[in-house]
Design a protein that fits this description.
The structure holds 2 protein chains of 2 kinds. Chain A folds into 2 domains: about 5-195, Thiamin diphosphate (ThDP)-binding fold, Pyr/PP domains (Rossmann fold), CATH 3.40.50; about 250-360, Rossmann fold (3-Layer(aba) Sandwich). In chain A, about 40% of the residues lie in helices and about 20% in strands. Chain A has 14 helices and 14 strands. The longest helix of chain A is centred in the middle third of the chain and has 21 residues, at about 225-245. Chain B has helices spanning about 1-10, 60-65, 95-105, 110-120, 125-135, 145-160, and strands at about 15-20, 35-40, 50-55, 70-75, 90-95, 160-164. Chain B has a 4-stranded mixed β-sheet with strand order 3-4-5-6, sandwiched between helices. The chains are: A alpha/beta, B alpha/beta. The interface of A and B includes residues 176, 181, 269 and 348 of A.
């Protein structure tokens, strides 16, 4: 087999190129730093001339997410992207998508908040993504890439999971991964699904009645509470299956470690450097990196924590994922947090200092 | 310049990361990028200290001089620097790239002159890889400019001087 071509591209560019390559039917978005390269790359690539993929700059984030709702209702692979303040505007739409059980992919390249905040990297949307964001009992299948390669790989994976569970999937990255350039091998081209394939694979979709007895109705509205409860139970059942089958994580040097860092996305990269520095000084520390933030690797963390003396949770926020880590280990060992706020990215040395402080 | 260096690393089959400061710095001040070229997988694209720092204005010098590793190097162009580096535990190099570029009437390759200086004091990639990288990233209609870039790199290697 010929060696695959290695490109040097930004994370945001990888998202756009991977979308074209994985048979995405439509992208609807509104520019915002630090992820504007997604829309820019798509516009430059003109996939409507090659694969037939639609690329549209909507008039707002609200319009984008509702265009996604419309496209998803027809069984198409559709996506949008934004950064924190824009993602906040989309929350109503995401709740509706989850309520109507529609698959789609949303990419959030997080920046510092709250409010309009800053444009620098942050991980402060963990709560918003994993604990709701919009109203109602729903979840977002959440993938957290920590390299440009994973940015490229997770677009197709997110679509696969979204369609498998008929639920929105979120790719949650931050300004570091979005803006940095790194080596990447782009995924192979996968053609867009034909109308016939969509009708076959998505019998729920609004694809035209085509001789069916009853029309497919896509809605999240149900005024009878008894029926609505059943709808909710069905969705919860689906989430249970997702929790059983879709947990993904990376374990790094945990085996002989006395301490463990839990970090996701670019924080996990910084943690790996800290681990190298710590091990040079004789401190045995490993890393558990959740790749799926929901479903969260609760059991895996509990298992790995058994012979550890303490856990440091590294996040670019004031302490959000730490709550899930504490629940996972049932507070049986010390769980400390280290983070920087408002767009500051901690460097490996300061994380090492935090680790030493915890050990002392 | 950072991007060209990253592409050159790619040409040699090395691991590379290029991380820009994409914030308000882009509009002036301490606009910077971090380039890592390594033989092994790169953990963190964000660093606490640097092997080599290139500074082209005073605010950048003040910000990054303390972050050079002991025994590392700092390269500055005196054009933008009023107060040169003062640390004694690092190597200090001066390159008059801006003046040289103006004298040669090729101000657009100022960055390549600085890159040449870097490659002289820290040969992390070969000139061949830089040129190969340029050929890879430039559209063919601009290839005629590559010899000029090569000349600038060699000029940079010639004019960089260590400040004792």
């Amino acid at each position: 087999m010929a060696e695959k071509e290695v490109s040097l591209i930004k994370g945001n560019e990888a998202i756009a190129l991977a979308a074209i390559r994985c048979g995405c039917d439509g992208y609807f978005g509104y520019p915002i730093t630090p992820q504007s390269e997604v829309l820019e790359t798509l516009a430059a690539q003109k996939p409507w001339e090659t694969t037939g993929m639609v690329v549209l700059q909507a008039e707002s984030e609200l319009a984008s997410i509702n265009m996604v709702y419309g496209g998803a209702g027809t069984g198409k692979r559709v996506m949008t992207s934004s950064s924190s303040p824009g993602i906040s505007l989309m929350q109503e739409g995401m709740s509706y998508l989850a309520g109507a059980e529609l698959p789609c992919v949303v990419f959030n390249c997080m920046r510092g908040g709250p409010g309009l905040g800053t444009i620098q990297p942050s991980q402060a949307d963990y709560f918003q993504t994993c604990k709701g964001g919009g109203h109602g009992d729903y979840r977002l299948i959440t993938l957290a890439p920590s390299s440009v390669q994973e940015m490229a790989d997770f677009v197709d994976l997110a679509f696969e999971l979204a369609f498998k569970y008929r639920n929105p999937a979120m790719i949650l990255a931050d300004g570091v991964i979005g803006q940095m350039m790194e080596k990447v091998v782009l995924p192979d081209f996968k053609p867009r699904r034909t109308e016939e394939q969509i009708i076959k694979e998505c019998p729920w979709a609004a694809t035209g009645r085509m001789g069916r007895k009853n029309p497919n109705v896509i809605t999240s509205l149900e005024l009878q509470s008894e029926v609505m409860e059943q709808n909710n139970l069905r969705i919860q059942e689906k989430y249970k299956k997702c929790e059983e089958n879709e947990v993904r994580y990376e374990e790094y040097k945990c085996e002989d470690a006395d301490y463990m860092i839990v970090a996701f996305g670019s924080a996990a990269r910084i943690a790996k450097k800290t681990i190298a520095l710590a091990r040079e000084q004789g401190i045995k520390v490993g890393l558990l990196r959740p790749i799926t933030l929901w479903p969260f690797p609760t059991k895996e963390i509990a298992k790995l924590a058994k012979n550890k003396k303490g856990i440091l949770v590294l996040e670019f926020n004031a302490g959000q994922m730490i709550e899930d880590v504490r629940l996972a280990v049932e507070c049986k060992l010390p769980v400390e947090h280290y983070g920087r706020l408002g767009g500051i990215v901690p460097d490996p040395d300061e994380v090492l200092d935090a680790l030493k402080k915890m050990i002392k | 310049m950072g991007k060209i260096l990253a592409y050159s690393g790619l040409m040699e089959g090395k691991e590379v990361t290029w991380m820009p400061a994409y914030g308000p710095e882009q509009r002036g001040g301490t606009a910077n990028c971090t380039v890592i070229v390594a033989d092994e997988e790169i953990a963190s694209p964000v660093l606490s200290s640097y092997d080599v720092v290139i500074v082209l204005n005073q605010p950048s010098l003040e910000k990054f001089e303390p972050k050079v590793k002991k025994g590392g190097a700092i390269i500055y162009d005196s054009y933008g620097i009023m107060n040169p580096p003062t640390r004694k535990d690092i190597r200090v190099y001066k390159i008059n790239a801006m003046d040289t570029a103006a004298q040669l009437g090729m101000t657009k390759v100022f960055n390549m002159i600085v890159l040449g200086g870097l490659l002289k004091v820290c040969p992390m990639v070969s000139i061949d890889s830089v040129l190969k990288g340029l050929r890879k990233t430039l559209p063919e209609r601009h290839w005629k400019l590559i010899p000029m870039n090569e000349e600038a790199i060699r000029k940079g290697m010639e004019i960089i001087e260590e400040v004792k």
